[in-house]
UniProtKB/TrEMBL annotation:
Catalysed reactions listed for this entry: cytidine(967) in 16S rRNA + S-adenosyl-L-methionine = 5-methylcytidine(967) in 16S rRNA + S-adenosyl-L-homocysteine + H(+)
Residues bound to S-adenosyl-L-methionine: C331, A332, A333, P334, G335, G336, K337, D355, D384, D406
Function in brief: Specifically methylates the cytosine at position 967 (m5C967) of 16S rRNA.
Localization in the cell: Cytoplasm
Organism: Coccomyxa viridis
PROSITE patterns in the record: NOL1_NOP2_SUN (PS01153), SAM_MT_RSMB_NOP (PS51686)
Protein's name according to its UniProt entry: 16S rRNA (cytosine(967)-C(5))-methyltransferase
Residues at the catalytic site: C459 (nucleophile)
EC category: transferase
Entry EC number(s): 2.1.1.176
Pfam families registered for this protein in UniProt: Methyltr_RsmB-F, NusB, RsmF-B_ferredox
GO CC annotation: cytoplasm
Length: 522
């Protein structure tokens, strides 16, 4: 099937059925029509003007990072070293240490996260223009960057010179004319409005429509297929668009140190646009603009707040830890939820933050102290939950009033913030996560005292990792029963019919997450 440009779409996601887009008919391929298909952000939201001035040095640094992400799995948001051995293409780039000031580094991050997000669509365009033959992996990164800058950011034609230069110097001299030919063709096509774009033939089945959507919104086909089956096409378009938007960040106010109103005032005085969270107004501020300023003016380093998604906060609200209780956060690292639980407990009682990863727990104790946790209140323990549960059972250790199992998961609810994750995950990851989640749930349950509460949560939106795990757990653990979350803890807008918490990026404007309360009988 050859996918070409869709002639019509509408903003409600009724792809290819209606003839209008924003009130006017789209007659031929154009960047704005493409944007409409996937509900993409306007180009002017991108820092195009500033990027225009960037040198080849900045683009080389972007290519270096893209290679690292592809070969090492380095997370797109973290510009830093990777513990893994360097692979072939990286070694070729190693001789090019690129020094960047902080402004340039920010531009590189913009480019890298953009290319990572739109990789599927960029590759499709490149393949449309060069359908035959393999492409050198390093040249592919250069071409992706070039297509991204021209098609998505709308940068001027002359930026191509840098890409051609990089192809010549970093790949081989013969790669320069190929790069020049492909990118020049793109500049002509965008001028003439003939950029290639995906289209589905009338009457196409779900698979073909999902394949088109996957290209247009730059997601793997398998994800789009399962979401179309679950939510329908119109809602899937909204979910894809939410995953492609710049993520919205929020901060959890450390009420041990400052009130939300005081912090809001301080942030606004420093040029940050923020407002109380509609879900947790007493604890969270949504940062509309200026996350960098939040960091720069010291609110984080002074322990007044921490960057945390509201959905993560709602999981702690479901747990509802009380001062004086014994609480276990069984998969705690890096510790965002544990710190919120500590604040809710006002530093009274005992909170154990446990995780199998010692490395990921590093720094939690110091942050807790900085945030005002009294000595002796928090125990940070690097241990495997299953081993710990077995040991506790053998030793007859004291059980916990509340246990939070924030389980390892596919992370399909956080694709807006983790641009690379969509390309890393496979359907078998969801199945593998589910198997581990069952085992961890069993262990976590054994640590809850009679009458106590177990909260199970993930940052996935997949039922196999959420509702299905809860159902399967309840079938084999008849001393537990599900407990609908009281409206006093979280707003009904995030509750399912069964009373579990489930947020979706396009419905709630937060990360996608799930949380269930499971009460142990007395
Ligand atoms: C979703 S993350 C937890 C995030 C954390 N609750 C927070 O809010 O910062 C899942 C964690 O489970 C941990 N984990 C995986 N398997 C585990 C096991 N068998 N025992 C304990 N922790 C485990 C991982 O190291 C990872 O840090």
């Amino acid at each position: 099937m050859r996918l070409v440009w869709p002639k019509r779409c509408d903003h409600r996601g009724q792809l290819l059925r209606n003839h209008t887009c924003g009130g006017s008919t789209i007659r031929r391929p154009s960047r704005s029509a493409w944007r409409c298909v996937a509900q993409l952000p306007e180009t002017r939201q991108q820092p195009a003007g500033r990027l225009r001035t960037k040198s080849g040095k900045t683009r080389t640094a972007a290519v270096q990072q893209l290679v690292r992400i592809e070969e090492d799995g380095a997370y797109v948001g973290l510009v830093g070293g990777s513990p893994r051995p360097k692979k072939a293409v990286q070694q070729r780039l190693e001789k090019l240490p690129v020094q960047l000031d902080s402004r340039d580094a920010r531009f590189v991050t913009e480019l890298v996260s953009g290319v990572t997000r739109w990789k599927g669509r960029l590759d499709w365009v490149i393949r449309e223009l060069r359908p035959r033959g393999s492409i050198d992996p390093l040249l592919l990164q250069i071409l992706r960057l070039g297509v991204y800058e021209l098609v998505e950011l709308g940068l001027p034609d002359h930026v191509i010179n840098d890409h051609v230069d990089m192809a010549r110097k970093l790949v081989r001299p013969e790669a320069a004319p190929v790069t020049n030919a492909i990118l020049r063709r793109i500049t002509r096509m965008r001028r003439d409005g003939t950029l290639p774009a995906p289209e589905v033939a009338p009457g196409a089945g779900l698979k073909e429509r999902a394949a088109m959507l996957a290209i247009a919104a730059s997601h793997p086909v398998w994800m789009v297929e399962r979401w179309v089956q679950r939510y329908g096409e119109a809602e899937t378009v909204k979910l894809l668009a939410a995953n492609n938007r710049r993520p919205m960040y929020s901060v959890r106010v450390n009420r041990l140190r400052v009130s939300p109103a005081e912090l809001q005032q301080r942030l606004e005085d420093n040029g940050v646009e923020c407002e109380p969270s509609p879900f947790l107004p007493d604890d969270f501020l949504r940062i509309r603009r200026g996350l960098r300023e939040v960091m720069a003016q010291g609110a984080l380093s002074e322990g007044l707040c921490q960057v945390q998604d509201e959905s993560a906060g709602m999981v702690v609200a479901l747990l509802d830890p009380q001062a004086g209780e014994r609480v276990l956060d069984a998969c705690a690292a890096p510790g965002g939820k544990a710190l919120f639980a500590a604040a809710r407990m006002q530093g009274r009682g005992h909170l154990m933050a446990m995780d199998a990863s010692e490395r990921r727990l590093k720094g939690l104790a110091a942050t807790a102290e900085q945030q005002g946790c009294p000595p002796g209140f928090l125990t940070v323990r690097a241990a495997d939950l299953q081993g710990f549960a077995t040991e506790q059972a053998r030793a007859g250790g004291e059980l916990f009033d509340r246990v939070l199992l924030d389980a390892p998961c596919s992370g399909l609810g956080v694709l807006a913030k983790r641009a690379d994750l969509r390309w890393r995950r496979t359907p078998s990851d969801v199945a593998a996560a589910a198997a581990l989640q069952d085992e961890l749930l069993h262990s976590a349950a054994s640590l809850v005292r009679p009458g106590g509460l177990l909260v199970y949560s993930t940052c996935s939106i997949e039922p196999e990792e959420n509702e299905d795990r809860v159902e399967s757990f309840l079938l084999s653990h008849n001393s537990f029963r599900p407990e609908a979350a009281p409206g006093s803890l979280v707003t009904s807008g995030v509750l399912t019919e069964a009373g579990h918490m489930a947020t979706l990026p396009h419905r709630h404007g937060t990360d996608g997450a799930f949380g269930a309360r499971l009460r142990r009988a007395d």
